[in-house]
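Response to reviewer comment R2.3. The reviewers asked that we include at least one raw input/output pair. We reproduce the pair for Oxidoreductase here without editing.
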Amino acid sequence: MTTPRALAIVAGLGPGISYGLAQKFATAYDLILLARSTNTLDPLISKLKSDPAIKYLKSVPTIVGIPTDVTSIESLSATVARVREMGRPVTLAVYNVSSGFKRSPFLEIDLKDIENGFKSGGFGGAVFAKAVLPLLLDSVGKVTWESGERVNPTLLYTGATASFKANPGMSAFAMGKWSLRALSQSLAREFGPQGVHVATVNIDAIVDLERSKSILADVEDGKLKPAEVAETYWDLHRQGRSSWTWEVDVRPWVEKW
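Raw output as returned:
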C-alpha cells in the first residue's frame, strides 16, 4: 500500500461481522469506524487496539471511531467532512448495518418494523453510498498495493438471503434486504464502469457471538465466524477488475438452503 495509508470505512461497528472486518482491514488500512454512539465505539476500538494481531503489526494502524447515524444525511455528511479533512484516499467502504432481524406473522407486525427495515436497508444504504462514492471515485487509479498492482476502490454491502428468499413471518426484514440488494445491483452497474467495485455479501446463518453461544452449541463450525466471513469481503476487495463479483453468499457447511 502506498504511504500514507489509505482509509477503510466500516459502518455499523458491533461485536460480530464488522469487528471481524476491522481486524482484517487493519492489516492494510487505517480505519474509520462508525456506530451510533460512543457506548458502542469506545469498548470495541479499545479491544481492537489491544488485539495482538493488530498491535504487533509492522505498521500499526490508526483507528478512529466517529459516532454517526448512517441513516441520517446530516450526520453522515458531517462524518464525511471529517474524513475529507484527513486528506487521505478512501479505497474501501462497507455498509454493515443491522436491520433488526425479527420474525412476526404479517397481520401482527408493527408497521414501524417495516419502516425501520427500509430505513436500515435500502434507504440507509443509499445515504451511505451518496456520502462515500465521491470519496471512492476520487481514489480510482491513485492507490497501489506494495506489489504495484492498482487498488480498486470498493463499496460492499452486507445483505442476507432474505433479499431473494422471503420466508413466512420475515416480511419486514426481507423488504429491507430486498431494497438494499436492488440498490447494490444498480450501483454496481453504474459505478463499475467508473472504476468502483460494488458488491453484496449475503449472510445465510447465525453469526457466532457470545449471545448466540447456546445455539447449535454441539455442532462444530455450525455458525458463521466473523474472522472467516471477513476473508470473503477482503477477497472481493482484492479482485482484479477483469473479473469482479457482484454477489456472493456465505453459510456454514450444515446450513440448509
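The first strand starts at residue 7 and ends at 11. The chain has a mean pLDDT of 91. Further pairs are available on request from the corresponding author.
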